[in-house]
What we know:
255 residues, alpha/beta, Rossmann fold, 7-stranded parallel beta sheet, 8 helices, 43% helix
Amino acid sequence: xxxxxxxxxxxxxxxxxxxxxxxxxxxxxxxxxxxxxxxxxxxxxxxxxxxxxxxxxxxxxxxxxxxxxxxxxxxxxxxxxxxxxxxxxxxxxxxxxxxxxxxxxxxxxxxxxxxxxxxxxxxxxxxxxxxxxxxxxxxxxxxxxxxxxxxxxxxxxxxxxxxxxxxxxxxxxxxxxxxxxxxxxxxxxxxxxxxxxxxxxxxxxxxxxxxxxxxxxxxxxxxxxxxxxxxxxxxxxxxxxxxxxxxxxxxxxxx
Length: 255
């Protein structure tokens, strides 16, 4: 697939680590230009530097996706740099508290929803408005959101996170219905347990790591690079017929 995204501009939120950093590097390998956003400007710049060190082109900026003003400033700066948006990976998210629903504070619930749902909504609004004003590249514009297998089934110890990721799946499907005939595809990836710092609070609950591993059909957890590979493929012309789809990348956990 090398070069299928040549000269396209890709925006990645939550790009300072995990799926976001892995995706930025793989977008670079496909000759895309990458705008990296993260709430931590230092890690965003580290990712951009890694892309440049690999021979690609990248710019980094700070963004708090839960804050409308911050999102607008990030996108304005990215558009000033690159003048267009061809693809977007709305990846920024938080796990939130681990515990049953009656144990979750209202403040924690609202923070999870603000980042994971409001953040995706705000980013998609700006991305879609910009994409509607542009000529679509071959295969159309693409938006990929990060959901989760917890957006497809219940998760007893992650009620706020589970609710937020179900909402991301719903937003993805609604946008795909609205904009498919106007050249914008919208999908979401639904990872299972992946070896990232985000998952550690859950893995650390008693024997949760062992219990979750026992559910995997492939007898292992995934890596950020494997999730990123799916994101990049969904963003490419090779996936031109795919929209409105929550794609599992879960080592068969839900099989």
